[in-house]
Amino acid sequence: EVADVVVIGGGVAGTNAARMAMGMEARVTVLDRSLNRLKELDMQFGPTLNTIYATVDAVERYVLAADLVVGAVLVPGAATPQLVTAEMVSRMKRGSVLVDISIDQGGCFETSRPTTHDNPTFIVDDVVHYCVTNMPAVVSRTSSVALNNATLPFVLELADKGHHRALHENVHFRAGLNVHHGHITHGAVAKALGRPYRHAEDAIQP
Predict the structure, then answer these.
(1) Structure confidence by residue, pLDDT tens digits, 146-169
(2) Are 97 and 121 contacting, i.e. CB atoms less than 8 angstroms apart?
(3) Which of 175, 179, 204, 201 is nearest to 189 (CA)?
(4) Which residues contact 6 (CB under 8 A, 6 or more apart)?
(5) What is the pLDDT of residue 78?
(6) Which of 25, 50, 82, 148 could disulfide-pair with 29, CB 3.0 to 4.6 Å?
(7) Average pLDDT by consecutive 10-residue portion of the chain (206 residues)?
(8) 86 - beta bridge partners?
(9) Exposed, middle or buried by CB within 10 Å (0-12, 13-18, 19+), for 191?
(10) Strand pairing report for 127-130 and 97-100
(11) Which pLDDT does position 96 carry in this prediction?
(12) Residue 49 has what pLDDT?
């Protein structure tokens, strides 16, 4: 029997989860709120992947029919929205599984709570939950090398230019700036904390 796998969120983590599930010959659906991302996934995987716009009704419909749901929602700088309610979990198939990759930012299932590699799962309403924080730690060397490769160019630029010049010259540094001289410069962070927001380009001016 073919398993039904639902991935909520079509970013890097969600795409790789979908790829693994397709490799195991599951019937895979990715839900996302970006039409552009859904189009990219459709072009990449074709008819082997079902791509659906993530309305409230669509999330409920596909989650209730799933054997495995992977929550891979990321809102940079903000808490993850809880897209799967406890009521929905109570109506899922008995023995189905929820994997909450978003748990480091609060989780996208209402019934999620952080777990560890030593005690990774718990059960709510006969649904198995896997909510391990810092999941890449299970392959710590590989994940550390990958992180170093991604961040090294930015570290070198900071070392060469200093933070003030780097912020003025590199839009990516400004986009990643969260706090500068006491001002919160990331909109999502400011909203999550209920604090005033100041645009990074204004905050870095002398």
Answers:
(1) 999 999 999 999 999 999 999 999
(2) no
(3) 179
(4) 28, 29, 30, 31, 62, 63, 65, 66, 68, 69, 70
(5) 67
(6) 50
(7) 95 95 96 96 95 96 98 79 94 97 93 95 98 91 93 94 93 92 90 90 87
(8) none
(9) middle
(10) parallel
(11) 97
(12) 97
- Which string of DSSP letters, residue by residue, matches the chain? -PPEEEEE--SHHHHHHHHHHHHTT-EEEEEES-HHHHHHHHHHHGGGEEEEE--HHHHHHHHHH-SEEEE----TTSPPP--B-HHHHHTSPTT-EEEEGGGGGT-SBTT---B-SSS-EEEETTEEEE-BSSGGGGGHHHHHHHHHHHHHHHHHHHHHHHHHHHHHH-HHHHHH--EETTEE--HHHHHHHT--B--HHHHT--
CA atoms within 13 A on the CB side of 74: 10
pLDDT, tens digit, 9 for 90 and up, residues 44-70 = 999 999 999 999 999 999 999 999 999
**89 contacts 60 by C-beta, under 8 angstroms:** no
pTM more than 0.90: no
* The token pair that represents 86 in the structure block: 């406890």
- Relative to beta strand 49-53, strand 4-8 is unpaired
Separation of alpha carbons 113 and 28, rounded Å: 25
- Look-up: residue for tokens 């969600």? 14
Residue linked to tokens 């969260």: 178
